[in-house]
Amino acid sequence: MTDFKRTLITSALPYANGPVHIGHLAGVYVPADIYARYLRMNGQEVAFIGGSDEHGVPITLKAKNEGVTPQDIVDKYHGMIKDSFEQFGISFDIYSRTSSPVHHQTASAFFTKLYESGKFIEKTSEQYYDAENKQFLADRYITGTCPKCGFERAYGDQCESCGSALSPNELINPKSMISGNTPELKETKHWYLPLEQYEGWLKEWILEGHKEWKSNVYGQCKSWIDGGLQPRAVTRDLNWGVPVPLDEAEGKVLYVWFDAPIGYISATKELTPEWEKWWKDPETKMVHFIGKDNIVFHCIIFPAMLKAEGSFILPENVPANEFLNLEGDKISTSRNWAVWLHEYLEEFPGKEDVLKYVLTANAPETKDNDFTWKDYQARNNNELVAVLGNFVNRALVLTQKYYDGKVPAAGELTETDRLALAEISVIKAEVEKSISQYRFREALKYAMDLARLGNKYLADAEPWKVVKTDPKRVETIMNVCLQITANLTIIFAPFLPFSMDKLRVFLNMDELNWSNLGRTNLLPAGHQTNTPELLFEKIEDEVIEKQVNKLLATKKANEVANAQVAPAKENCTFDDFNKMDIRTGTILEAERVPKTKKLLKLTIDTGIDKRTVVSGIAEYYSPEEVVGQKVSILVNLEPKELKGIQSQGMILMAQDADGSLKFVTPVAPVKNGSEIK
Q1: Domain range holding 624?
Q2: What is the pLDDT of residues 486-535, one digit of tens each?
Q3: Separation CA 530–CA 442 (nearest Å)
Q4: Residue 418's pLDDT is what?
Q5: Domain check: are 524 and 594 in the same one?
Q6: pLDDT value at position 561?
Q7: What pLDDT does 558 receive?
Q8: Quick one: pLDDT at residue 562?
Q9: Predicted model pTM
Q10: Motif 'HIGH' region: residue span (predicted)?
């Protein structure tokens, strides 16, 4: 195995057309941060690279819909994402952006070298063109009827109704989203990376050389390679992105999949003038942290780009995670079905580590996992509070009580004491093994085992009882407890950095390197600790209920937005319709019908008379709300007795997609009794 001098950690660039959510965190940024912090604690040289992906069609679409420029969109979300990461404690060495001048220069130079080296092929094809706006249309700028399910608002790359992947040519009755016109097919030239030329090399490099990669990553790579690779366009017709640096390529930009990973290189350039040692020295270990939707780009396409360029190192590992779902449903930005990081930070101040803990403990490392607010509450209350926080608090409070906060000296150790202290090094080895294999969920479990060990040791030793008969023994017990507590500040530092900063303040100790983990003399006798506070606090049911209700409201709003309009009923004749006498009227009085939930008794001025109507609207309106309400009323409906009340007519109501009822009423004032024609 190569003995690397340094580690370059990259994390997938979040797309700057919306904020970051917990799916992004669990899949990419939390594990990457744990790894970076762990390596730094081991004294290793680390560059942890992040940044915003700011090019591509979705950003131009969002800008068009909001009536602003693409730069306005990326400025807004880059700032929001960067601030959220900083507050959450993701320890990037740099967080850059692909709209920066350094990135544009770097991406252009990369393209130029491949172009001049003959690494691209040119292909001319017919693509849809909007003649009115004089521009070629990206797939997302074209809508039409899905050929698979008949959905009339399918995009040129996908139908969001049936989920089918599409090409623009398959759409029935395609339309330009810019002008609304039918686009025409027009020839355009683009440059392609011939991936098929790298198939043999990729088989050797990945399938033979990296069998240690995670099975989901290795399996997806094998599937792509075995299926046969095809040329992939590196340029496209668009006015937002890195301009293609060729005189003949006016109006074309680098395809976002091509320019985005180069963002790792450009960000490193911004970080240090010694950027080449991170990208061109074989003694640098490069690890990409991504979600499973990015595997092909980081394992096949980007390595092929680097291989074609010739001077860059290749990733040593790509520990991609699966997806995190939310309350049993796939996280969706378009449906607002997410827990957004910036909102979490506002609503749960000081609980950054709680979310990190839950997302790590439930990380989708080998399969899709589910985040629920009940699980969040349970892990906080039953693990962080009841295990880690409980042990730490009891150890420090008893030290304050018995020794005014000074660390007592250890006397002769019993077998139980020695076993407890020896277990620290055993747990340390397990955590190291798990992290080296990118199994952060497992590593966190072992770290929590140290807190469980402390809890059991303290409970079994019962110093609160022994102090009455053998106070010297209690000094040893408490010394052991405090040494375990000090070790907890090290073992949990990569996972819960804010909480361990807090715990070190309680212990009055400096931050220690990983090599100190396992020592049993971290706190010398006589060392003065500080007055402790609770490390974690219990989260009550009402806090969780508020978050659940917030999601339920989102789900309800989505159902309303996507509800299908009921189909038309069978045709009726004009004579049938003409028999109905519908008039305008005003509700004069209203009261609930006793022993019913839905019925209101209404007195209505129809302009013809004043009559009683029993209406099933009590679930949506109180009697006080409806008095004075203008209504449309069918006055020639045959009277009917309801709950002993003679009802003479029916008021017209519209039922919304959420089932609620709304009055059908004139927009402008009209006289009661006016006929509705």
Answers
A1: 574-675
A2: 999 999 999 999 999 999 999 999 999 999 999 999 999 999 999 999 99
A3: 32
A4: 97
A5: no
A6: 66
A7: 67
A8: 64
A9: 0.85
A10: 14-24
Characterize 408-428 residue by residue with b for buried, 16 or more Cβ atoms within 10 angstroms of its Cβ, and e for exposed: bebeeeeeebeebbebbeebb
Tokens describing residue 250: 């006016």
DSSP codes, 294-362 = GHHIIIIIHHHHHHHH-SS---SB---B-PEEETTEE-BTTTTBS-BHHHHHHHSTT-HHHHHHHHHHT
Measured CA to CA, the distance from residue 596 to residue 389 in angstroms comes to: 53
Distance, in Å, from the CA atom of 561 to the CA atom of 552, rounded to the nearest integer, reads: 14
CATH number, domain containing residue 390: 1.10.730.10
State whether 586 and 519 are in the same domain.
no
Separation CA 27–CA 319 (nearest Å): 10
Task: Tell me the sheet residues that pair with 587.
Answer: 604
- 221 appears as a binding residue in the annotation: no
Token couple for 654 = 């519209």
Q: Is 502 helix (H, G, I), strand (E, B) or coil?
A: helix
328: phi > 0 → left, psi -120 to 50 → alpha, else beta; which? left
Is 333 annotated in some ligand binding site? yes
Residues 316 and 223 in one domain: yes
Low-confidence ranges of the chain (pLDDT < 50): none
Element (H, E) at 285: strand 284-289
In the chain, the number of structural domains is 3
Q: Looking at the structure, do residues 401 and 522 belong to the same domain, yes or no? A: yes
Residues 523 and 580 in one domain: no
Query: 165-224: per-residue pLDDT in tens?
Result: 788 888 999 999 888 899 999 999 999 999 999 999 999 999 999 999 999 999 999 999
675: Cβ–Cβ under 8 A, 6 or more apart, which residues? Answer: 581, 582, 583
Does the annotation place 481 within a ligand binding site?
no
